[in-house]
């Protein structure tokens, strides 16, 4: 029995995967074409399609190629798995206990979809002004959560997404490197194997 035979194990894996490779957003109406919008989307993009196939099996959605191969920067074909609306909310609710970085975004997304379901279809006269403003605000809040500073303004480091509860920890200067790190080896004793170490090579 492999680890992926357990749904619980897969959910934990999906949570970590989504924290690193996932995105969640709320689309807005197209003002030029008047196409209805305010739809919730969740997606994961990566070059290894195997985990995305498991996501399709567990949560449905679509799996397709994302972008084109453009050597030398892009050598492997990226793939994108995407779900929307209630399927997205179901996926996000399932992985929420196993996420950290994107947890606040997931909370906003679930709140959005729950209210959208309670309001129901927009009907003949469309959305009320109040409801439209609320949905715009939720979309805006989701975007803002993706541009918070990771370690405060002092370091000037931004992330695509971050949990606000862990965003105020200042990064010690000793963790910042002004040049690349290389892997070297050193003997640790006559009867022991070499130990891998990471050493910063500074200018």
Q: What is the fold-level CATH name, i.e. the topology?
A: Endonuclease I-creI
Fraction of residues in H or I helices? 25-40%
- By CATH, the architecture is named Roll
Portion in strands = 15-25%
Shape from CA axes? globular
Give the tally of structural domains.
Answer: 1
The CATH H-level homologous superfamily: Homing endonucleases
CATH class placement: Alpha Beta
Largest sheet: 4 strands, antiparallel
Question: What is the string of helix and strand elements?
Answer: HEEHEEHHHEE
Mean pLDDT: 76
| CA radius of gyration | 22 Å
Number of strands: 6
Structure report:
The protein is an alpha+beta fold and 203 residues long. The chain has helices at 7-21, 50-59, 85-95, 103-119, 129-145, and strands at residues 22-26, 40-46, 62-65, 79-84, 181-186, 195-200. The protein has a single domain (3-166), classed as Homing endonucleases (Endonuclease I-creI). The protein has 5 helices and 6 strands; from the N terminus they run H-E-E-H-E-E-H-H-H-E-E. Strand 5 and strand 6 (195-200) form a beta hairpin. It is globular.
Describe, in short, the structure shown.
With 203 residues, the protein is of the alpha+beta class. It contains five helices and six strands, in the order αββαββαααββ.
Helix-strand layout with pairing:
Layout: H1 7-21, E1 22-26, E2 40-46, H2 50-59, E3 62-65, E4 79-84, H3 85-95, H4 103-119, H5 129-145, E5 181-186, E6 195-200
Antiparallel strand pairs: 1-2, 2-4, 3-4, 5-6
